[in-house]
Q: What sequence folds into this?
């Protein structure tokens, strides 16, 4: 039985990447050591992290005046690092269009109880269970604010922002965890981008931060480990970085480049998601909880049947048929197909066949 992994993260990795890592696992580049045993100060790892950065810069067309950091702590640690480094003494706006955006805003509010800055909820769609991207007037933003924070892809709810909003000239900070390298963005449109690796880049444990040099904090942060400038000045080597995760990221970057780069991945992802959305649109059995089609994510596609009981039955039968981790997030229920870069189009066709059969048997 073929297994298709629809997990939202940690997610499916390219088989070619896994095979290469397997081949190099015991002896990396003739060193006689596993890549997991290499010192982060060794010439072997120095080449790995430099190659990883160069590949990412090429793939995303990152300008020279941006720093690229490979950090630990997941994207969630950035929820604290961002205001701690960048917002003191200023306002910071948050567009909350999903659960992760809400967590980022909640963390900022928590920090503001002891630190002098003002986190402001710019707009939220929580009242309708994050079924759309909320809108706002640019004039509502103080042009002297530190940043506007947004999430480009809402993993749980299946919405995304592809056309950036007008922020009245205020720099944009973006959590791009679930569609980095999967959709095309211009890095120079952001002051900072951050992303957990475990969806499109590699295993859990690495967080990518791309930050404009003039946006780096001028004053020391409360903790050296949480200080962007210290991390940048030390080229991500202030402490021992997640060496194996960075190595795996390098392999993924190499493969994305070989497949045609981000534009090619974005085209493939639109093709994959269109197949599934087309089935849902034509069906009177399956529905999408996303209110506006323009807000639909091509990375994470939630859908439901006419009842919770049928949702439960679908998830049970799908799992038995080899469609793993397709159950929706516990906060929203239903089903969710995560179609990241490494997910094969054959898996989408197989899921559609299963969905058609399930509808015929249970309509």
A:
């Amino acid at each position: 039985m073929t297994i298709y992994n629809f997990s939202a993260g940690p997610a499916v990795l390219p088989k070619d990447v896994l095979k290469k890592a397997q081949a190099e696992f015991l002896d990396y580049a003739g060193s006689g050591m596993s890549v997991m045993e290499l010192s982060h100060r060794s010439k072997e790892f120095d080449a790995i992290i430099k190659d990883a950065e160069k590949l990412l810069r090429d793939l995303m067309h990152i300008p020279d005046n941006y720093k690229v950091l490979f950090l630990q702590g997941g994207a969630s640690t950035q929820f604290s690092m961002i205001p701690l480094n960048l917002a003191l003494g200023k306002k910071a706006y948050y567009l909350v269009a999903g659960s992760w955006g809400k967590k980022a805003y909640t963390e900022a509010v928590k920090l503001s109880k002891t630190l002098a800055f003002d986190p402001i909820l710019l707009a939220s769609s929580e009242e309708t269970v994050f079924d759309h991207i909320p809108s706002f007037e640019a004039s509502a933003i103080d042009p002297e604010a530190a940043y506007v924070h947004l999430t480009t892809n809402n993993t749980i709810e299946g919405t995304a922002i592809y056309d950036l909003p007008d922020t009245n000239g205020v720099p944009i900070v973006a959590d791009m965890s679930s569609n980095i390298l999967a959709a095309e963005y211009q890095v120079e449109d952001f002051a900072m981008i951050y992303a957990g690796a475990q969806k499109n880049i590699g295993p859990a444990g690495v967080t990518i931060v791309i930050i404009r040099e003039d946006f780096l904090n001028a004053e020391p942060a409360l903790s050296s480990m949480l200080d962007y400038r210290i991390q940048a000045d030390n080229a991500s080597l202030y402490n021992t970085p997640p060496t194996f995760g960075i190595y795996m990221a390098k392999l993924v970057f190499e493969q994305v480049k070989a497949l045609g780069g981000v534009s090619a991945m974005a085209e493939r992802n639109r093709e994959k998601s269109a197949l599934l959305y087309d089935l849902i649109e034509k069906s009177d059995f399956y529905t999408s909880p996303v209110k506006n089609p323009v807000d639909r994510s091509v990375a994470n596609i939630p859908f439901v049947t006419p009842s919770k009981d049928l949702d439960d039955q679908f998830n049970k039968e799908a799992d038995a048929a080899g469609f793993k981790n397709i159950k929706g997030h516990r906060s929203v229920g239903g089903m969710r197909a995560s179609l990241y870069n490494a997910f094969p189009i054959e898996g989408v066709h197989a899921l559609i066949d299963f969905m058609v059969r399930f509808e015929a048997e249970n309509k």
